[in-house]
């Protein structure tokens, strides 16, 4: 038996496992009704057509002008003239869901490819998404989301702060016509899609999914395979091309002329050979890194060739992101891939800088370049591991199905010692486990064949899942005790896929040279690097890391503290220096403080007590402003004449937590939102259409038994290990029934009202009467299918958008359920307390501080910040601004933003009062008493209200503020 020595996994584990070679896998997985409802993947479609004998067509090219359509949507389209310097008419699809259909004829059965010439119109800065139907059908899943990028460039040279540190300039869009074939948006296949068409007439329908764009022409053509390098080399020899001499053209990677995505930017590298290098300051001397990782992203460089002839090309790069796994790029010169080997060029892994000398085992490649200007484009390619990714994703889908079948038999918390007779109750249980294990084992072997280093830690997830499947197949009675492990494995495989699809490299420069010139050096000697590290270490004791960008001393300057990460603060400071200061003349220093709520509050309190508070603080947690307002430490924003005008930027309910003693003491920067998430595939499997997704809590309660009968459950958040969240979990029910937390201007708790009691009964009833799980990881159980529907917040939206690639297109989001009112409206009230901006009262720049806060919370600034943040960090950092207009401008898909805006119509936040932490504490206690201890709701509520009222009075007395007792005494005195 041979073992993988570095990881301890047995590479002979599949010996003796049946191959099932003579069995149709679909018959073994006959219960996989979910997959039968979905289109096949492109790889499955293409493989099936090849097995059916389909061949590439030949000698066919057809260009259909965009205005020669046969049908068009009634709205959302426009015929434009002379767009982008192109004479004549073109058709624009401007609105989401607009479409155009064309009719064409092909001369023979065969495989054809398609592409289109397009022009990106002003939108939300995102790439254009289109889907295509052939003869009324999506032939495979990837045609439902094809991506066509915009073009971006730097708006200026990098700027330097007054400490000599370099910063990225803004990226601005470049308009112009582009051509792109219909390809996989995630670049899992190297070639454009091949569509099988029979001889005769067909229709092709283009649908707008995201962003407006004009179409010049649609092209349908026969595939043209790329030549191999050997063929190209022979052509060079036949034409008598000769290598040049004494030529070196160095192209600095950070000076990219065009890129597909504003997230692609200059970055800093401290390796001494990286050019240019400055030991005393930040120099953005390389390109790419973690931002250049997503399939289809490209960057382009211009360079000048002084002499016609044959050249070599080298790329100095770093690829230390995927342990032991090569990453790929498609290389294009002057818009064409020169030969097959560059369609998916590998960049091997190494924990330091390398030089990729473009070539193969026979030597370096030659490139024929004529004198003059040329372009070189590099595009992220994932085709080398595309088959493995698909195999693992298919396995996660099968795991999801099998997991649901198991829980239908055992329930979600089975007795691991019970005799559940799973083999008798679940068809083909053991063969299915064997097939999943073999799929993962094949993926491991394919990864090794691709070039993964032996012992790479990146393969441990596949080994682990394979071995667990084999163990379950060997002893099926152990499966009930392994349900959590099974779910965790599914999550791990999904994360493995997500990680493998992020193919990052960082580049220093591209060198085009003659063969007689030496190749560039990989990395600096170890002693040089140690010297640089030592210098950096000692320099760190004298550098100020809290200040961002330009810092001013001995001047009148606005002091702004930001409780966010450095990347966030750098964007804000850059916006200040480029926009706010030039337009207002107000200079600003920006400093970073901790983001943890407790640390943030402590630092601000200490600074305020010591007389060192800033003028403005941003990123302040939503419950903090009232703590400072009651201490008379904040400026009442009502003092400014235009406060009401500024307040209209937000939902009225978003301002409630910042009101105290008839004043307003903060502006919201961002805010959370709570939505209903659901799995489209599983809902369809249960016979529940999209229009039947619950709108009210009554409909939810009707759905829960259906879910539980099928081994699934509904999710409503509850965090037993974090009682402070209980108030947010209860608030929607309270608000939807028309209740509130406090009365008498925050003097007393209002939780003894009939509305509050009804709300508490409904909230706790979900856990007592309907037996919802008291604690669950919704994200992972949503992925596994155990909880295919539930209520969650913005963080879940981000997780599903970025870390669940296997669910792309399988989930949806709607406003959260509510209570139907007498007039038929559904009250969906809920809040989403987040971060705020405040002005400290000790400031001697009150008007300047207000100007800053107005500027920062404006729609333009919030849109700019959100766009720059997403450009820098990707969709996982999407800014959930509280400014309603700015939120609409950010690159949400229309269905998502429509759902969010519908939910925001009911946005209502709770009041923050002195002693309110007792409300938070006792709502958690009340839940525990009712759900865990069986106490009657009224009894638990009355007991909790008594304790809350005591603390409210105590805290108000502590600060010398009127209490309910003093108020009553005044009233009695007045009556006498």
UniProtKB/TrEMBL annotation:
Top-level division of the source organism's lineage: Bacteria
Pfam (any one): SBP_bac_1
Gene3D superfamilies assigned to the protein according to its UniProt record, in alphabetical order: Galactose-binding domain-like, Periplasmic binding protein-like II
Region (Disordered): 956-976
InterPro entries documented for this protein: Bact_solute-bd_prot1 (IPR050490), Galactose-bd-like_sf (IPR008979), SBP (IPR006059)
Protein name: ABC transporter substrate-binding protein
Organism: Paenibacillus odorifer
């Amino acid at each position: 038996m041979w073992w993988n020595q570095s990881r301890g996994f047995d590479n002979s584990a599949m010996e003796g496992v049946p191959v099932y070679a003579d069995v149709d896998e679909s018959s073994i997985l006959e219960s996989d009704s979910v997959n039968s409802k979905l289109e096949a993947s492109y790889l499955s479609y293409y493989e099936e057509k090849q097995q059916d004998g389909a061949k590439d067509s030949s000698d066919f090219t057809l260009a259909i002008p965009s205005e020669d359509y046969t049908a068009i949507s009634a709205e959302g389209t426009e015929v434009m003239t002379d767009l982008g310097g192109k004479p004549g008419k073109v058709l624009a699809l401007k609105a989401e869901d607009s479409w155009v259909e064309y009719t064409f004829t092909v001369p023979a059965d065969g495989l054809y490819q398609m592409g289109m010439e397009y022009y990106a119109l002003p939108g939300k800065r995102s790439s254009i998404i289109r889907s295509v139907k052939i003869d009324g059908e999506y032939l495979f899943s990837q045609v439902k989301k094809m991506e066509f990028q915009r073009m971006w460039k730097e708006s200026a040279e990098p700027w330097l702060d007054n400490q000599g540190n370099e910063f990225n300039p803004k990226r601005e869009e470049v308009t112009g016509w582009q051509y792109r074939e219909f390809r996989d948006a995630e670049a899992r296949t190297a070639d454009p899609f091949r569509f099988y068409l029979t001889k005769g007439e067909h229709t092709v329908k283009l649908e707008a999914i995201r962003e407006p764009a004009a179409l010049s022409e649609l092209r349908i053509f026969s595939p043209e395979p790329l030549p191999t390098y050997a063929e190209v080399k022979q052509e060079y020899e036949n034409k008598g091309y000769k290598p040049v001499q004494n030529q070196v053209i160095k192209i600095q990677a950070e000076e990219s002329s065009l890129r597909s995505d504003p997230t692609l930017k200059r970055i800093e590298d401290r390796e001494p050979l990286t050019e240019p290098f400055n030991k005393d300051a930040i120099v953005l001397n390389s390109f790419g890194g973690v931002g250049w990782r997503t399939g289809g992203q490209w960057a382009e460089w211009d360079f000048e060739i002084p002499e016609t002839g044959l050249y070599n090309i080298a790329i100095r790069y770093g690829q230390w992101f995927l342990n032991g796994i090569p990453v790929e790029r498609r290389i294009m010169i002057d818009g064409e891939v020169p030969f097959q080997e560059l369609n998916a060029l590998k960049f091997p892994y190494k924990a330091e800088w390398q030089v990729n000398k473009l070539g193969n085992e026979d030597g370096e490649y030659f490139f024929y370049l004529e004198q003059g200007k040329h372009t070189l484009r590099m595009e992220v390619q994932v085709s080398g591991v595309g088959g493995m990714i698909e195999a693992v994703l298919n396995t996660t889908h099968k795991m999801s199905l099998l997991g649901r079948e198991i829980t239908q038999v055992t329930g979600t918390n089975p007795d691991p010692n019970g005799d559940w007779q799973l083999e008798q109750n679940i068809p083909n249980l053991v063969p299915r486990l064997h097939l999943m294990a073999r799929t993962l084992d094949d993926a491991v072997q394919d990864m090794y064949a691709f070039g993964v280093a032996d012992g790479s830690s990146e393969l441990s997830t596949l080994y682990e899942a394979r071995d667990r499947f084999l163990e379950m197949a060997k002893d099926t009675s152990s499966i009930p005790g392994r349900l959590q492990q099974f779910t965790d494995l599914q999550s791990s495989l999904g994360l493995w896929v997500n990680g493998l699809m992020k193919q990052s490299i960082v580049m220093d420069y591209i060198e085009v040279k003659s063969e007689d010139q030496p190749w560039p050096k990989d990395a600096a000697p170890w002693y040089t690097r140690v010297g640089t590290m030592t210098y950096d270490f000692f320099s760190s004791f004298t550098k100020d890391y809290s200040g961002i960008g330009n810092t001013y001393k001995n001047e009148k300057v606005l002091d702004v503290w930001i409780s966010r990460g450095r990347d966030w603060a750098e964007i804000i400071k850059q916006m200040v220096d480029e926009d706010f200061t030039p337009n207002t003349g107000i200079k600003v220093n920006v400093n970073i403080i901790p983001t943890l709520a407790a640390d943030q509050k402590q630092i601000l309190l200490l600074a305020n007590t010591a007389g060192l508070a800033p003028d403005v603080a941003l990123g302040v947690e939503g419950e903090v402003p009232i703590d400072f307002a009651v201490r008379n430490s904040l400026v009442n924003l009502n003092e400014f004449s235009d406060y009401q005008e500024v307040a209209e930027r937000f939902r009225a309910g978003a301002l409630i937590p910042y009101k105290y003693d008839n004043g307003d003491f903060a502006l919201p920067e961002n805010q959370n939102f709570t939505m209903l998430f659901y799995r489209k595939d599983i809902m369809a499997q249960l016979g529940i259409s999209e229009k039947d997704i619950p709108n009210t809590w009554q409909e939810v309660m009707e759905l829960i038994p259906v879910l539980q009968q099928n081994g699934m459950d509904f999710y409503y958040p509850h965090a037993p290990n974090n009682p402070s969240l209980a108030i947010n979990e209860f608030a929607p029910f309270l608000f939807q029934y028309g209740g509130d937390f406090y009365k008498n201007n925050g003097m007393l708790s209002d939780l003894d009202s009939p509305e509050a009691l009804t709300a508490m009964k409904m909230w706790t009833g979900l856990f007592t009467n309907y037996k919802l799980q008291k604690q669950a990881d919704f994200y992972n159980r949503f992925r596994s299918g155990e909880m295919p529907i539930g209520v969650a917040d913005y963080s879940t939206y981000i997780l599903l958008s970025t870390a669940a690639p296997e669910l792309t297109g399988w989930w949806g989001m709607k406003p959260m359920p509510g209570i139907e009112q007498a007039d038929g409206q559904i009250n969906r009230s809920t809040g989403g307390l987040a971060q705020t901006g405040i002005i400290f009262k000790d400031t001697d720049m009150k008007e300047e501080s207000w100007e800053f806060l107005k500027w920062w919370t404006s729609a333009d600034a919030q849109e700019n910040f959100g766009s720059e943040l997403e450009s820098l960090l990707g969709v996982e950092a999407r800014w959930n601004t509280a400014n309603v207009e700015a939120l609409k401008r950010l690159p949400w898909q229309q269905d998502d933003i429509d759902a969010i805006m519908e939910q925001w119509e009911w946005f209502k936040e709770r009041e923050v009062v002195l002693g309110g932490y007792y409300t938070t504490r006792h709502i958690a206690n009340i839940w525990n008493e009712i759900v865990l201890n069986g106490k009657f709701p009224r009894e638990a509520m009355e007991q909790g209200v008594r304790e809350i009222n005591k603390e409210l009075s105590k805290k108000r007395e502590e600060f010398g503020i009127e209490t309910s007792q003093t108020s009553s005494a005044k009233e009695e005195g007045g009556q006498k």
